[in-house]
Input
Amino acid sequence: MALSKKPTTGMKDILPEEMQIRDYVISVIKDTYGKFGFTSIETPCVENIANLSSKQGGDNEKLIFKILKRGEKLNVETATCEEDVVDSGLRYDLTVPLVRFYSNNAAQLPTPFKALQMGNVWRADRPQRGRYRQFMQCDIDILGEPSNLAEIELILATTTTITKLGFRNFQIRINDRRILKAMAAYAGFAEESYDSVFITLDKMDKIGIEGVKAELLANGYEEAQCDKYLELFVEIEKADNGVAYLADKLADYLDAEVMCSFREILDSVQATKADSFELVFDPTLVRGMSYYTGTIFEIAMPEFGGSCGGGGRYDKMVGKFTGKDVPACGFSIGFERIVLLLMESGFQVPTRPKQVAYLIEKGVTGDALCEIIAQAQKVRQDGTQVLIARMNKNKKFQKEQLNKEGYEEFVEFYKDPLKK
Output
């Protein structure tokens, strides 16, 4: 029986054309974030299963690729529960590993600590356009900064990076989990029902306000509660300033400092941002991760028709590792979706080095071959990219394939110097 030559479902091989774009995007990300003071780190792809299953990752915890214990520790015959056979798993995001990393190394890190982490993550999800079971994530996080300077820096650094990659007319949608909770409290929902209410609210863009009401009623909530709750969203839409409207309406349910800080984030970003994106207050923005405690944001790109990244504040997460809370906030770029959009737009990597292909006839060997290799080495010293390859029988097709990889100049070497 022949071995399968296709990748595992939900994973893919990356061809040279895409790899060039991926390398370019990575270089832009690292260079731009570096200018904002973010430092690269790396964490293992495998984490303790208890960390991954700590009820902080939302629905992602249902998608963990779990790893069986090894050797004598694995005894399937005597196992009575999953914990008896599983002790670790592949990370489903970079936030949980980052917090573990920070908790373990905080004494050796500056405060605040500005981290940049890029790496593959794994989710046993249903594959679709722009979504795979193995995919690259790119996160920036600021740990140890309690003020809204963290949010402002994260938004500006991320939007600067996306703009440098050529994207325009995108949105940063922004909200605050504390605003969400205050709106639910104002409507009369019990605190223990907030998560259920927010799950339904998160569908607003798909099912509309009437659909949200129907689902809330189906879930057993009182019609008077639902009407009072959804009326807030109608009034926000009508208001000249939705944030100011809520600050007044929720005065008895929300600390005034929360709205003051939120408005300062909006004003600071608006005053210093580029013209390439729009900052939008979106009271329906929820974000699925249960670890978010304050500001939340998402990148919306019309070309993709959905989110291309997001993040928020998670001030309580470090404390689950150390017993002492540390303020933390992060922003993740949807790396795979950005690469997909660049590929579909026919993007070409700018300022690539000159690419020359040396095609050598099969009979060229010995001193003649050494002379060609030495010539290539000399040309490479000037920054030129030189590929040395044996000439195929179908030379035309070979050149066409190399041309797709960026090789536009070809030098041919034959055993007979007079042959062309």
Remarks:
- The CA atoms of residues 356 and 386 lie 5 Å apart.
- The mean pLDDT is 90.
- The two ends are 45 Å apart (CA to CA).
